[in-house]
Structure formats: structure tokens, C-alpha cells
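Hi,

Apologies if this is the wrong queue. I'm a grad student, and the batch job for DUF211 domain-containing protein from Meiothermus granaticius NBRC 107808 produced an output file that my downstream script rejects. I'm not sure whether the problem is my script or the file. Here is the sequence I used:
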Amino acid sequence: MNIRRVVLDVDKALARPSLLELAEAIAQVRGVEGFNITVNEMDLETMGTEITLEGDEIDYPGLIRTIEQIGCVVHSLDQLVVGRLVERALLRRGGER
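Support response: The file is valid. Your script probably expects a header line. Output copied below for reference.
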């Protein structure tokens, strides 16, 4: 299966790993060509992030294993694109595109 895009909800401790350490680990996963890590929530001990990755034949099990081995927790898989990238059409008022 050719996984082309993955969006994950991931929590990490504030102290470790740093975002740079997390990025360095993810960059080593087979098939990952580019990614964004967006911080969307913080509390006293944890940082919630959304990680969006794109590539060709992303090693999903290896990706999850890498994220967990560095000390983060994957809460959910929020988007998975297989094959050709398909963007959702956004509807405007009145049903127009």
C-alpha cells in the first residue's frame, strides 16, 4: 500500500524529547519526504502536536515505532492518504464550490 500522507495527533513531554530531536527521528523514517510539526496545546507537563507527513510509501509501522521509542505518545491517526493525493473540495455557502 502506497501511503502518501499521514496526519497524527501526538503528545510529548515538555522537557524531552525536544521538537528538534523528534524531527530528527522522524526524518529517518523510510518514505518520509517532508513533514510539519505544529504545537496546538500545552499544559504544565505536556505538549500536544499535530504531525503532518508526506512522502512515497511511508513506513507507517516504522513511523509509529520511531515516535514511541523517542518517548512520545500517538493519540490518533487523523488522516491517511493512499495512492494519489486527493484534496477535499471545500463547500461555500449555498453549496457552491
